[in-house]
Each structure stands twice: as structure tokens, then as C-alpha cells.
Amino acid sequence: MNRTVTPLGTPRRATRALQTIAAAAALMCALPAMAGPITFESVQPNALVNGESVSEGGYNMLVLGSPIADELSLTGPFAAIANSNDPDTCFSIGCPAGASGNFLAVINDGGVKFTRSGHQFQVGGLSLAFLPPVSVPDGNYGLLQFSGIRADGTVVSSTSEFPGQNAGGSFTFGSALIDQKFRNEVLTSLTVNACLFDGNGGCFNSLANPANGQAQFALDDISFNAVPEPGSFLLVGLGIGAITLTRRRKAGSTTPSTPVTL
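Request: output the structure for the sequence above.
Response:
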């Protein structure tokens, strides 16, 4: 009795599937990941002194003192996790219009430094508002300043204007207008503070030109893009190579096999 047996082609379907899955997994692991925005809802409302830090979403936020406090090694309140639903908080530091739940208030010319456990990241976006210590008419009083550190230690900077007031005379939260070039920068840390216009085209908040406790601001809904480590890019190359090899073998296996008669 004769039987016709067709040899199995190579690679087998199971092998091709495993290679494709492994390649896809490598590609996915190496893609930048955007976590949920930092909203401060998981952080207990409280005053923060320079040197203290809070964490949310995998990012650490270190409170920085004013230039004068840093020079004189002074410790004091330079930030607060504020609850916009608390009348006492809104009376003492002011709550921007549009605030919902908790937000970060940076006061007394202080700042905040963002890091991600030694990993790199890119700026996605954030909401900001001006927090003047006294009631002032609507106007453009200063800028939010961004100072990022690259992996090689070099510094890159950018700024964003503050939104103005609403019809009720309250400064409002709004999206920061950060230029795309700065958003594309890969950073190891990001420092944010504010400066005030001097009326002569400059913006000041320094030891030589202090802002006298008036460079205050609020932040909320902060998003960053986590950047893969260099080793992850090797996975991309391996993944692409595996997909290419799979396709070549698949193309080679389309040649009809020669039946063998037993």
C-alpha cells in the first residue's frame, strides 16, 4: 500500500507564532509610556518645607526653597498640597478658578524638582495658575520657568505664561504653553519655579533680585512620558530582527514540498 507523505515545511507554525509574539513584546517594552497625570489626589493635604518631598505616579517631587533661603540655609514653608474644597486653605493661599480637589501650591518664591527614580522622561503637559499673595487686578505678572537636566548634565530651559483672571477676578488654571522643542527633550530631572516681570523686559526671582515672596504658582494634572532605558532599544533591534527573520523563513516555506511516496 502506497502512502504519500508531504514533509513539514520549516519553520513550523508554532515556531513562527512564538517568534512573532516575542518580537512584538520586545517592541512594546521599548515604547515610551505615558502614565496617568499627577493630580495629587493620593497625597494628604499639608504644608511642605524645603527639603521635603511627595511622590505620585512613580515621580518624586522635591520642594525647593527660595534663592535667599538656599543662600542662608533657611528652612520654611515653600509649598503645600492644597484642597480646593477647603475654605480655610482657599482663604489663606487662594485657590485658582477651575481647581478641583487637590493641587500643588508653590509659595514664597520656592520651586519644585521632579525626578523619576533615576530614569529619564519627557514633559507631557500640565495645568498652571498664578497665586499672588495679595489681591491684584488682571494682568500678566510673570512666567513659569522650566529647567531640565539631560543625561549628560547639560541644562535646557523653557517658560510658559500664566493664564489670566476670570470675570470674577480670580486667576484661573490653564494648560501650560510649552514649546514642542522642550517637550522633545529627554530629561533626568525637571525644576519648576516662577519669576516676576520687572517692567523692563526682564523676569526676576534670584538672590540678586528677589521676588519678595510674590513668585507663587499652582500646578495640577502634570503628565510625563517615561523614556525607555538604552537596553530597551536593543530589544527593539532584536524584535525587528526576529520579525524580519520570520518573514523571510515564511516566504521560503511557500515553495511546494516534494511528496515522498512510500
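Helices lie at 13-30, 67-72, 87-92, 180-183, 230-252.
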